[in-house]
Amino acid sequence: MTLAFYMDEHVPRSITNGLRLKEIDVLTVQEDGLAGMPDLAVLDRASELGRLVFTQDEDFLIEAQRRQQQGLDFAGIIYIHHQRLVIGECIRDLEIIAQLGNLEEFANRVQYLPL
C-alpha cells in the first residue's frame, strides 16, 4: 500500500497532476473544501485522513515544532522550500516516499525535500 498525500493549497498543480499520473493518492485542500483554512485545521484534517501534508509553507514547520514540544500527534509533514522546488525532482521524491514509506515512520515529524 502506498502513502497518501494531502496537498497544501499553495502547492503547484503540476506536482499534484504528476503524482496522479503515477497513480499516487493525492487530495488537495481545495478538493477537500478547506481552502483558506488555518494551517492548524489543515494539519488536523490530514491527520484525521491518515495523509501526509505536502507543503512549501514555513508556518507548518512552526506548527510541527509546537506539536512536537507539546507531545501532540500529527500524521507528518513533507516540506520543500519554494526556492529549492524543481517540479520533476519533487514528484520523484514524493513518489519514492509514497511507495516505500509507511505512515508510522513519518508520524510527528517533518521530512525535508529534496531527499
Q: Can you give a write-up of this model?
A:
The chain has 115 residues and is α/β, with parallel strands linked by helices. It has 5 helices and 5 strands, in the order E-H-E-H-E-H-E-H-H-E. Strands 2-1-3-4-5 form a 5-stranded parallel β-sheet, with helices on both faces. Strand 1, helix 1 and strand 2 form a beta-alpha-beta unit. It is globular, with a radius of gyration of 13 Å.
The percent range for helix content is 40-55%
Oligomer: single chain
Report low-confidence residues grouped into runs of 5 or more: none
Q: What is the number of strand segments? A: 5
Order of strands in the sheet with most strands: 2-1-3-4-5
Number of helices: 5
In short:
By secondary structure, the chain is α/β, with parallel strands linked by helices. Helix content is 43%, strand content 14%.
Task: Draw up the topology in text.
Layout: E1 5-7, H1 13-21, E2 26-28, H2 39-49, E3 52-55, H3 59-70, E4 77-79, H4 87-100, H5 103-106, E5 110-112
Parallel strand pairs: 1-2, 1-3, 3-4, 4-5
Supply the key terms.
14% strand; alpha/beta; 115 residues; 5 helices; five-stranded parallel beta sheet
